[in-house]
Each structure stands twice: as C-alpha cells, then as structure tokens.
Write a structure and sequence with these properties.
Length: 462
C-alpha cells in the first residue's frame, strides 16, 4: 500500500511512513493511493468475529505487507483488551431500527480510545524496528488528548505534548490528561480555541527545522491510521445488523470530521451505507457546507458539547480531495485559500458527490439538553451532550432502514451538564472513580506558535 498527499507535492510513502509522519511535508493529508476493498462475503463474516479480529483484517488491508497478519492481530488483541466491555463497541436499541453504538468503554471513556490504543502499538512496533524516538504533538478539543495520554504514557520511544484550549473543555476531560505522572507526558493549556491549537499544530509540522530536530509526529485524526482504525466499528456494528445484505445508516456527532470520514472510508472498502448524517452543534461549518456548498469559517462558540467546538474541520480536506476526483492542485488551491480567507466555495460536481453520501444537521443548545432528558425518559439511557446532538439530528432527517448513532463519550465526562439536563448525576466507572482526587500537572502558554514550538523543543531535549 502506498499513500499520497491530498496536495500532490510530496512523494508517495508506505504505511509506516504515513503513520509516523502524520501530516505530509507539503501540508496535505495522506490518503491511500488506491482504496483496498473487502468482499461482501468477508464483510458478512465479521458478524461472527471478535472486534480485534475484524480490526486486524481492516487495518491489515491498509498496512499491506508492512506488518504480518500475526503481528497485526497480536497488537489488536492487546489494544482492545484495555476496554471494559468484552464487545469493545456494544450496541443498545433506543427505538425501532435505531441503535446507539457505545464507543466509550476505553481507558479515557471516549471514542478516541478505539483508534489511539492501536495507534500506540503501531508506533511501538515501527519505532522499535527503526531504533527511533519521536515527539508527538497533539491538539485536542477534549477527548483526543486524554486518549493519547492513556495510550502513550510511559512509552520508551515517544514523548507527548498535548495542547488544549484553556477553559473550553470539561474538568473530567482535562484531568484525563493533566493527572498523568509519567515523565514522557507534557500538557499545555493554551489561551484560545481548539482551532488556535490546531493552527499551531499545522504550523509546527510545516517547520522543517523543528520536525527534523525533534522527529515530530502527530496522532490527531490528520494521521490516517486513526481514520482506518475508526472505520472498524462501522463494519462491526453494520455486520451485527445484517450488512452487507442490509444497508445501515449512521449518525455521527462531528467536529473535526474524522469520525464521519471514517464511515466514508468504510464505504470505499465495500460497506453499504446509504447516508452518514453529520450532526454538529452551533459550530455548524460542516452542516452549512453540506447544505449550502459554502465551507465558511466563523467564530467558535462555547457549547455543552465542547469536543465539537470547531470551525475548521481538518478531515474535510480528505473528502474534498475525493469529491474533486482526487485533483491535488485544486485541493491545494482551495485549502490555501481557506487558510487566508476562511472560505471555500465547493464546486457543484463536488457538492453533488458529498450530498449523495452526507447530510449535515446543526443542533442548538436547548435541543441538546432536551434530548438528554427525553432519551432518558423514553429509553432509560443516559447520554452525554455530544451523543445528544446526534440523537437530536435523527428528528430532522428521514432515513430508510436500520440506523446507528455513534455515542462518542461516557456521560460522566460531562457531569455538570448531564445533571443539569436530566437531574441525574452520572458517575465515573469504577476504574477511574478517583480521578478528581489526583494531582494535576500542566503548563499555561499563550496561543502563539513560536512559544509552543520552543516549548516542544525544550521538552524533547529535557
């Protein structure tokens, strides 16, 4: 398997280099040069396989001959043994032909664990083979950072710097990062928004001197291995509901578009998915793009679903690249224009391609809170605000056939807002019940790229 940049100015690389590099040198995102495919018979067989077995097969299709089947299966079994539920991603039914896929049974209680746990094993495998050490720079809107810390804490070959927007994530989300005691972890509260953190991240990766000096790597969803790993639960949930004989729709709460794009990846491998509903909060850049054809950055509004408080969705570039028939010059032009102007007018043909696969729905704050309480009253299920955005979006669309809502976080990660809406105080699972009593360790820095880059260099050398 070879991987190319969406902007066309970087050489094709193998799976190992795409994973360890994260962002392509030209600023684009890696995608497979050609999409692998799985037969209908193989997808149907997933219904009788363990989650780790399905993950090994799907990820193996992207790794090609760079990882043996036995090594991939061993890494997947180790990664998913960290989850508290034997099914890894269990489902519960909340209505006729409507199901919730619980993606939050990993160590940090969020869907990011599903990809991050296997990504850490891939890093250990590749870096061990090459005798390398890397510094991972991560920007998080809440959950990616905690998942990265849980996956990489204590790693011998990796040091991790996590940036998060100060005051814009929940206390539980913050504590999953800042209570780590391992010396290879550093957390930075940045004054600004997640988009500011993400801009600093991209700037750091285009600084060739810094990248070479510290061997910089990324585990945000700009890393294609994260997307590949997230595509696995589309297969497991759909197969459990009868795919590929039955097509299954998905509703995905979305900020950076990685989780929803993973669903698109599953379709490229052969999974029949009529529609992926992209549910956003008031930060509705994606919903507006799919409905109007204009991808326009606005100001970031704080909401009850902070992991989605994003107005620049990195993975949209991957979809744009596919929608313009993989034309890298057009993709580079569009996203360079977006960087300076904050606007992309999606070409008509590309918009038609997107709308055939995605529907965007924006949900306001009142409806989010009302959906938490109505879901509890009607089903007995207590959901977090991000999941509530997706459940609410169901009321605004008409879908034919079974539908799966991606539940991206445990309600106890947002205790104040869930309690405010439902009157029920969610409790942390037994394994992390003492999180609030642990000491925190983090630094506060301005949202300035040069300051962050100097911090990263000093941490790498320390």
């Amino acid at each position: 398997m070879r991987y190319i940049s969406t902007r066309g100015e970087s050489s094709a690389v193998g799976f190992t280099d795409a994973v360890l590099g994260g962002l392509a040198p030209d600023g684009g995102l890696y995608v497979p040069e050609t999409w692998p495919t799985l037969s209908r018979e193989r997808i149907a067989a997933f219904a009788s396989m363990s989650y780790a077995e399905v993950a090994a097969e799907v990820l193996g299709a992207f790794a090609g001959d760079e990882i043996s089947s036995a090594d991939m299966l061993a890494m997947c079994e180790e990664a998913y043994a960290t989850f508290s539920h034997r099914a890894v991603v269990p489902m519960v039914q909340i209505g006729p032909q409507t199901f919730i896929a619980e993606l939050f049974h990993g160590p940090s209680l969020a869907f990011k664990d599903v990809a991050m746990q296997i990504l850490a094993r891939l890093y250990d495998h590749f870096l061990g083979q090459q005798g390398r050490k890397q510094v991972i720079l991560c920007a998080t809107s809440g959950d990616t950072g905690g998942a990265a810390v849980e996956a990489f804490r204590g790693a011998k070959n990796v040091r991790v710097v996590v940036m998060f927007p100060e005051g814009r994530i929940s206390e539980v989300q913050r504590r999953f990062m800042t209570t780590a005691v391992e010396d290879n972890i550093a957390c930075v509260a940045v004054s600004g928004t997640f988009d500011d953190c993400q801009t600093i991240l991209k700037d750091a990766f285009q600084d060739k001197v810094l990248r070479q000096a510290v061997d910089l790597a990324a585990v945000n969803s700009i890393n294609f291995a994260r997307i590949a790993a997230q595509s696995v639960y589309y297969f497991t949930t759909a197969a459990a509901l009868g795919a590929p004989a039955r097509a299954v729709n998905f509703v995905v709460p979305s900020g950076n578009f990685g989780d929803a794009f993973a669903g698109y990846v599953a379709t490229r491998l052969g999974l029949p998915v009529p529609q992926i509903v992209v549910a956003t909060n008031s930060n509705d850049i994606l919903a507006r793009a799919f409905s109007t054809g204009r991808y326009t950055r606005g100001g970031v509004l704080p909401t009850f679903s902070p992991a989605m408080d994003i107005q620049s969705a990195s993975n949209f570039e991957r979809l744009y690249f596919e929608a313009v028939q993989r034309e890298p010059v057009e993709t580079a032009r569009a996203f360079e224009a977006f960087r300076t102007s904050g606007v992309i007018d999606i070409p008509p043909g590309a918009l038609t391609y997107m709308q055939a696969r995605f529907t965007g729905v924006a949900i306001g704050e009142d409806e989010t809170l009302k959906t938490i309480v109505s879901t509890l009253n009607e089903t007995g299920e207590l959901i977090d605000p991000h999941t509530a955005v997706a459940v609410a979006a169901l009321r605004h669309v008409i879908l034919d056939g079974p539908t799966v809502v991606m539940s991206t976080a445990h309600p106890a990660k947002f205790p104040e807002d869930v309690a405010k809406a439902s009157g029920v105080q969610p409790t942390l699972p037994r394994g992390v019940a003492n999180l609030s009593g642990r000491a925190e360790r983090f630094d506060r820095l301005p949202g300035d790229g040069d300051t962050i880059k100097a911090y990263v260099r000093a941490f790498a050398e320390g």
